[in-house]
Amino acid sequence: MDSVSPILEQILYGGSSVSMNLIAITREIPEEQRMFKAQGLNGAILFKYPSFNGLDDGGEAMSDEDDGNEEGGGRPVETGIYVPHNVRSPESGGVAVYLRGHNSEALLEEQFGIKNGPAENGIIGDMKMLSMIDEVPSLDAFLLKTCFEAEKVNVDPRHWLISNEEDHQLRRLIRARIEPIVRKALSGGGGGNAQSIERFLEAIWNPNLEEAGLFVSAFGIERSEADTIFSAWKGTTFYEYQLRRIAPRARVILNWLKSKECVPVDIRMHKPYETQLLMHIEKVGKLLETTLMDIRGILSDYETAFSSFMAGKPEPFRDYLRTIRSRYWLLGYCVSALTSVGHLDARCMKNTPSRKLYFEGTQKLLRQFDIALDRRREQKGSF
Asked: What is the rounded CA–CA span in Å between residue 205 and residue 64?
């Protein structure tokens, strides 16, 4: 494994937020029921990677101007397709195609034989499916599932690695988070008509409903923005839930990076590299801390806007909704990065409860953390 590139390690072992292993997922799904018509895609691994390219990534949301003018529409997380040379041994190397990369359509046609054409006989084409996946900041099954449902695109449920119980639980959590705002907006806090409130809550999952447009227009936002805003709102609430699950391990890792326990047990045998290693530990610790601070900033802004709205001051919440898409993408990157760091840490420490590593193990883990938290990762055509 020492010869495997750190970016490939991230794709293979970074967790389900950053990679979707279609090789494993589709193994038990008949060809005709798989997600893509091009079977080459079903034998690939989809992955997300950061590409901020100068966009603000220091906790402040990108401006509305950034949101539409940058290539990729202000989306600082991109989608790639990793095609291993040998599907039985994906760590042995392969090629990568990037959906927003230069000449990507020609590469996709060359690699998989797919073209960016209209739907045939009502069947959604592979390019459209890839485009939908690219519209979500991470590869979390719940977000992909709700995205495809909102577009009324049917996919065999075995592709979504999420149980019905967890799906229902997440929907209840999101509804509970959004319901007070809907009630307040419709009735000024007085309860309102139960049927109309239910219709507005249904619009969370079906932005094409008239109520979705009415809701955003009440905040002075164009009705055409309803789909984007509701998707980002759902996603923000989902990531807030995810954070509660991963925050404890993130704190353990951060405390470990700041402690003497992080120093390798055999550091005396590697004295010439001690300063360099300590600097790397400090760098990774700061990256992790910045990621946590960005998450806190976004969620704190949401809480402030929510509290103001419930107190009868709608302006902060209106402003939040107007910039929610860019905040959603930054939050998605940050939470996915933490999730990946947690997966990598758990994998490394599985047989080391003391959290005391040797020099080479520490170096490797730091390298993996660095890649997971890197906001300007370079593309590679092959691994």
From this structure: 24
**Which of helix, strand or coil describes residue 138?**
coil
Name the 3-class secondary structure at 333.
helix
φ, ψ (nearest 5 deg) of residue 143:
-65, -40
SS3 140: coil
Closest CA to 309 of 218, 375, 227, 379: 218
Are residues 10 and 364 in contact, defined by beta-carbon separation less than 8 angstroms?
no
Query: Longest Cα pair distance anywhere in the chain, in angstroms?
Result: 73
Instruction: Name the residue among 78, 59, 51, 56 with its Cα closest to residue 67.
Output: 56
Helix extents (H) in the chain: 6-13, 22-25, 39-42, 64-69, 104-112, 126-134, 141-150, 164-187, 194-202, 210-217, 226-257, 274-310, 315-322, 324-349, 359-373
Chain centroid offset of residue 69 CA = 21
pLDDT score at 173: 93
CA distance 19 to 82: 10
Nearest to 80 by CA among 25, 10, 164: 10
- Count the Cβ atoms, other than its own, within 10 Å of residue 57: 19
Polymer length in residues for the chain:
383
Q: What is the mean pLDDT of each run of 10 residues along the chain (383 residues)?
A: 78 94 95 93 95 53 38 76 94 93 89 73 76 96 94 93 94 92 72 76 85 84 88 94 94 97 96 97 97 96 95 93 94 96 94 95 96 86 82
- Token pair 């599932």 is found at 145
DSSP, res 378 = P
For residue 73, give the 3-state DSSP assignment: coil
Q: What does the DSSP 8-state code read for residue 157?
A: G
**H or E element: which one contains 46?**
strand 45-50
Report the C-alpha gap between 192 and 220 in whole angstroms: 22
Count other Cβ atoms within 10 Å, centred on residue 4. Answer: 16
Q: Are 373 and 288 in contact (CB under 8 A)?
A: yes
Upper half-sphere CA count for residue 89 (Cβ side, 13 Å): 6
Query: CB-based burial of residue 104 (10 Å sphere; 0-12 exposed, 13-18 middle, 19+ buried)?
Result: middle
The first and second tokens of residue 132, run together, are 């939908």
